[in-house]
Amino acid sequence: MSSCTSCCSASSLLLVNLPRGPSRHDIRGSLRMSFNNDNTNSKFTSSSLLNSVTKLLWGQSLPPGILVATVRTAWNSTWGLMMSQLAPSDSSGGYSRPASKFRFLGPVSPGSLHLYVGLACPWAHRTLIVRALKGLEEAVAVSVASPGMDGSWEFKRVGGADSGSIGPSLDKANGCKTLKEVYGLRRGGYDGRSTVPMLWDKGSKDVVCNESYDIIQLLNSGLNSVAGNPEMDLSPPQLKEQIEEWYRIIYPNVNNGVYRCGFAQSQEAYDRSVNELFCTLDELEGHLANSRYLCGDQLTLVDICLFTTLIRFDLAYNVLFKCTKKKLCEYTNLHAYMRDIYQIPKVAATCNFTEIMDGYYKVLFPLNPGSIRPVMPSTSEHQILCRPHGRESLSSATPVFVK
């Protein structure tokens, strides 16, 4: 009965501003009838009690202003607290991404590596694509974590994966329930952020690296002795300077730029971030009108880094992260460029759109409290992404792809 007492106390406070509303006696009588019905029918729920109270208080009209203001203030305070943990910000309210804790130092033992990823994460997606293109599936095993409702990564088999795509799995290397447990196995333990991707050394029981760009560089050139496609080089010496130059543009403004929009905690920070994002997308659209890939005829690591953001743009960032100025499908060259990469053998299998959408809409509670996942945009469907892109005409050489 204590819950009933709390509800009645709260109700009596609200009655002060409702002179023509029901009396306290009416409310108590109705609540008593609700409980009697519950004892008879066993169908009483807290939701039905709440509905009964609200109907008695203000009928079909909107809640009183004082209640709306109180709830808004409480929600804003709670939202700020959650966002400070989810997405730390600078003094202007701009998102400040924490630096990766474990950077690759080398050398590594190729036969002892295990890769941990999450399918929703664009940073982890980079590693899956490079692993596939280099033919490292057998040499570097992978465990696929799923985002839990509290935002942490956990291991479980999940049904309903997209046909032909990689899906969530159990921890194949350590048998842990969560990624946090895996991090905790390293010497000296670890109580920081447990992020994906993470490269693990099974022999030394330690984290090799959890910085995505370091990992894709290692997968591209550091494991050719065990790679099925060692001749592919996604970072050839003659293009390294161009690759790094493009990455200095793409990382802050696009890869991290969409997060800076979505996690902005002030109008000023959002306006700045969204302007930089779309100015950069406009620049890329112009560049790709005359160049098949960012560095000319050859697919490189920076193309992979851009692709994993673009493939999520209309699915998640345009809506959830407020990147609403334009959809990616409105950029003729960028959308065709994305389809070009998607159609490279093995790439589509790394794209699990169900997991991507669930990982954003159902898990990022501060951005989507109802956890309602919208319908997938038609331009992100597999059959649309497989339409001819026509970008071969921009290339003067035939790139080396996995057959």
Automatic annotation (TrEMBL):
Single GO molecular-function term?
glutathione transferase activity
Taxonomic superkingdom = Eukaryota
This entry carries the following GO cellular component terms, namely:
cytoplasm
Q: Identify the Gene3D superfamilies for this entry.
A: 1.20.1050.10, Glutaredoxin (3.40.30.10)
Among SUPFAM superfamilies, the record links this protein to: GST C-terminal domain-like (SSF47616), Thioredoxin-like (SSF52833)
Species: Phaseolus vulgaris
Instruction: Write the protein's name.
Output: GST C-terminal domain-containing protein
Q: Where is the GST C-terminal domain?
A: 236-378
What InterPro entries does its record include? Glutathione-S-Trfase_C-like (IPR010987), Glutathione-S-Trfase_C_sf (IPR036282), Glutathione_S-Trfase (IPR040079), Glutathione_S-Trfase_N (IPR004045), GST_Omega-like_C (IPR047047), GST_Omega/GSH (IPR016639), Thioredoxin-like_sf (IPR036249)
Xref: CDD domains: GST_C_Omega_like
Q: Sorted alphabetically, which Pfam families does this protein's record hold?
A: GST_C_2 (PF13410), GST_N_2 (PF13409)
